[in-house]
Specification:
This protein is an all-alpha fold and 97 residues long. 77% of the residues lie in helices and 0% in strands. The chain contains three helices and no strands.
Length: 97
């Protein structure tokens, strides 16, 4: 693991990028899509908050192997959730609007 600080910065950058995308898409979205985009925005913010909170409290803090496994699992779960959000966000992107 590099450092908690760098990990938190990376997560914040990804979160900011997704929030910007959601807000930009919502500017051109239909009225029916706005509620779904708001839920997606809340999902991203909640994911950010949960992940940052978990970074500060790793399981097995005294055992380096457990800590490495904890952060590897955390990164994997975070990436999977981000990919799910991105694929859901692609539904609202249309080039022919």
């Amino acid at each position: 693991m590099a450092s908690r600080r760098k990990l938190k910065k990376g997560i914040k950058e990804i979160t900011d990028f997704l929030i910007d995308d959601i807000l930009f898409i919502s500017l051109d979205a239909k009225e029916e899509e706005l509620a779904a985009l708001e839920l997606l925005l809340n999902r991203v913010v909640d994911l950010h908050d949960e992940t940052i909170a978990k970074i500060g409290a790793p399981d097995g803090a005294k055992n380096p192997q457990l800590v490495r496994k904890f952060y590897a699992d955390l990164k994997t779960k975070y990436n999977e959730e981000i990919e799910a959000v991105e694929s859901e966000l692609e539904k609202y992107i249309s080039l022919d609007k």
